[in-house]
Automatic annotation (TrEMBL):
<keyword id="KW-0812">Transmembrane</keyword>
<feature type="transmembrane region" description="Helical">
    <location>
        <begin position="64"/>
        <end position="83"/>
    </location>
</feature>
<feature type="transmembrane region" description="Helical">
    <location>
        <begin position="32"/>
        <end position="52"/>
    </location>
</feature>
<feature type="transmembrane region" description="Helical">
    <location>
        <begin position="108"/>
        <end position="130"/>
    </location>
</feature>
<protein>
    <submittedName>
        <fullName>Transporter</fullName>
    </submittedName>
</protein>
<feature type="transmembrane region" description="Helical">
    <location>
        <begin position="136"/>
        <end position="156"/>
    </location>
</feature>
<dbReference type="Pfam" id="PF04143">
    <property type="entry name" value="Sulf_transp"/>
</dbReference>
<dbReference type="InterPro" id="IPR007272">
    <property type="entry name" value="Sulf_transp_TsuA/YedE"/>
</dbReference>
<keyword id="KW-0472">Membrane</keyword>
<keyword id="KW-1133">Transmembrane helix</keyword>
Length: 162
């Protein structure tokens, strides 16, 4: 049983528990920009950012997106298993703490809202920037809506079912 209520809430946000204590110069962050650009290129080439592919998925007309999502889940599950099994540390030697998560009804509501938004807009948070980068500037509305939704969640978090 966790006695520290603050930790109990913070452990739901991985970054609050695993935040690095290290301080780097600004140019160390360029690696994230490079990986993000490469990731965006992969998203575009794999058609993950395609509104038509996303609509095919929600209409159960194509396996394309399910295959990509399924392989991402498999890679994530194997990665988490390996981190726990072999006590893998960050590249800088820091420990990685993965707290057990409790299932609650708020996840169902959040998942439904997320799924409806994804189906309506044809965009989930991952590929938003890649879509904007391809010239689909209307996705800026979706990006601003995602930011507003995140802010609303943060504002009402204490009152929501967890």
């Amino acid at each position: 049983m966790i006695k520290d209520k603050d930790f109990e809430i913070r452990h739901q946000d991985t970054v609050c528990v695993n935040e690095s204590e290290l301080s780097h110069r600004w140019y160390h962050h360029l690696k994230y920009l490079i990986v993000g650009v490469l990731f965006g290129i992969v998203f575009v080439k794999a058609e993950v950012v395609s509104w038509f592919r996303i609509q095919e998925m929600f209409r159960l007309q194509s396996f394309h997106m399910y295959g990509i999502i399924g392989s991402a889940i498999l890679v994530g599950a194997v990665s988490v298993w390996m981190i726990k099994k072999f006590n893998i540390k960050t590249i800088y030697g820091e420990s990685i703490s993965i707290s057990p998560k409790k299932f609650n009804k708020g996840q169902i509501f959040g998942g439904l809202i997320f799924g409806f938004g994804w189906a309506i807009t044809g965009a989930c948070p991952g590929p938003l920037f890649a879509q904007i980068g391809t010239g689909a500037l209307v996705i800026i509305v979706t990006l601003l809506s995602a930011i507003a939704g995140t802010w609303v969640y943060g504002y009402f978090r204490e009152k929501l079912p967890h």
